[in-house]
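User: My instructor asked us to take a sequence, write out its structure as tokens, and then describe one feature of it. I'm not sure where to start. Here is the sequence I was given:
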Amino acid sequence: MLNLNTLMMKHLFYTLIISCFFAFGCTSKDREVATASLNATSNGAAIGKAQFFEMSDGKIKMDLEINMPEKADSSVAVHFHEHGDCGNMGENTHGHWNPTNEQHGKWDSESFHSGDIGNISLDSKGQAKISVTTNRWSVAENEANNIIGRGIIVHGGIDDYETQPTGNSGPRIGCGVITAIK
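Assistant: Let's start with the prediction itself. The structure tokens for your sequence are:
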């Protein structure tokens, strides 16, 4: 039969274990919730990918990789567009995704579209990696800020952050569709 001291020690032990669990990892790990394969609009060749993660704090993080040797040592603009249809050289994605009805601008400025990712500098091999973490995006159904089914457009030029509503970013040279991971 267990005595009172043994029961108290077991209770203390389990309380300590549970406390450690909550202090050091009870929150769920970041999990991948969506992805997009980016392809050239001219010939369909793979040019990159985007992975989206739901963070433990509820924000969404995008890790974007671009590989376009033909654009080495230059910059390209990247935007989310309304529709996930890369047909007609990316034109079927329509305009920038703008669920908050703001003016086009630079990310984290006073006013910008939730899809205004901005200019990305490619290195001497035409490669780039960026990460963006925000609470402006969601993967929840029926939410206005849901990114699932949106198009990602890589433009041939840079965004001037002023021209409305597009940033005068040049032709659509790459496209992908954000797809949920089940």
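For the description part of your assignment, you could build on this observation: The chain has one domain: 31-180. Try explaining in your own words what that tells you about the chain.
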